[in-house]
Amino acid sequence: METGESRDEIIKRTKLKAMKLLEQRDYTQARLRLKLKDAGFPDEAVNDAVEYVSSYGYVDDLRYACNLIRNSSGKRSRREIERKLKERGVSSEIIREAFESEAENIDESAEDELIKKLLLKRCPHPGELDNKQRTKLLGYMYNKGFQLDRVERILEELLDITY
Predict the structure, then answer these.
(1) Is residue 1 part of a domain?
(2) pLDDT for 42-63, tens place per residue?
(3) What residue numbers bound the domain in which 101 lies?
(4) Residue 125 needs a FRET pair 20 to 30 A away by CA distance; which of 33, 58, 73, 156 works?
């Protein structure tokens, strides 16, 4: 910060920096705050700048969450998308609202195809799995954020086994 700057000048520079950041990519409110603080702006100026850009709709956590869900559907599990949004500072309420809003755009079969693709990538010959390998594979898929019942169903389909 330059010494001798008035409070209004600092706030104006912070708003300009926020606008410049948003020209390049979309941010959540939390991430924008972090970027501005990292740039050395004081908390009061950061709060004013985030409020300013939010009032014009330049920062909208719901829009951000919906875009991420839409772009990640079929590429990531729901739980992985949720985790990513939480890391970026989006509240659980907004995440839930975004998933409800995007429900019609989420293709369940695309996630099934993703599960199938990952299973075959990790284990090209699923028929050769022993119990230990199967457990390890299921753990891997669970850690990727997939529901175990879906993974098991798709694995069984790959093995052509029906109960």
Answers:
(1) no
(2) 999 999 999 999 999 999 999 9
(3) 61-105
(4) 73
